[in-house]
Design brief:
- The protein has helices at 24-40, 46-54, 61-69, 79-97, 154-162; strands at residues 17-20, 107-110.
- By secondary structure, the chain is mostly helical.
- The chain has a two-stranded parallel ribbon with strand order 1-2.
- α1 crosses α4.
- It is elongated.
- The two termini are 34 Å apart.
């Protein structure tokens, strides 16, 4: 008010723009499955897997169920998963913070998404974690459906959230 500038002119006291990440569990589980199926077990080539995903797993429900049930996965507390969570989350934070907003302020990364996980369901294709195109993305830092049983074991499930916590994240991590 004192400088007579609105937010679009840089007059706001807090001039950051928050960029929200969504589907961290999908990213981590998809990368783990891609490594397992294509590169370690060599069950499918990358081209074959991409064809299955493009077809939304049509005609191959057994593959979809198999990749959906692979472990370790986001929320299980395993060291392999935690390292990948840390790498993906911090890579996201670093990438967001490299840019300035149109008003010259910083971008800040966040993981607290209240909406859009249903809105983007048709935009995001099938994923190597077994998610079909059109299925809602997991909200915020929630685990995919299998991991809801982990709520009985909060210490293991919280390790995935703890692995991504950083001072860079805007808003609470859960």
């Amino acid at each position: 008010v004192e400088r007579a500038l609105d937010i679009t002119q840089g007059g706001a006291r807090y001039n950051f723009t928050q960029v929200q990440g969504i589907g961290l569990a999908h990213v981590v589980d998809s990368l783990l499955n891609l490594r397992r199926i294509v590169y370690e077990a060599r069950k499918l080539s990358l081209r074959q897997l991409l064809a299955k995903l493009d077809a939304n797993f049509a005609g191959d429900e057994p593959l979809r169920r198999r990749v959906e049930s692979l472990r370790p996965a986001y929320g299980d507390g395993s060291p392999e998963t935690q390292e990948l969570v840390r790498h993906v989350a911090h890579g996201f934070f670093d990438a967001v913070e490299r840019f300035s907003n149109p008003r010259g302020g910083p971008h800040r990364a966040g993981l607290l998404v209240w909406t859009l996980y249903h809105d983007w369901a048709d935009v995001v294709g099938s994923l190597p974690d077994g998610r079909r195109r059109g299925a809602a993305l997991v909200s915020r830092n929630r685990f995919r459906k299998w991991a809801y049983s982990l709520y009985r074991f909060p210490t293991s499930s919280m390790k995935s959230v703890r692995a991504q916590i950083t001072v860079k994240v805007a808003g609470p991590p859960i």
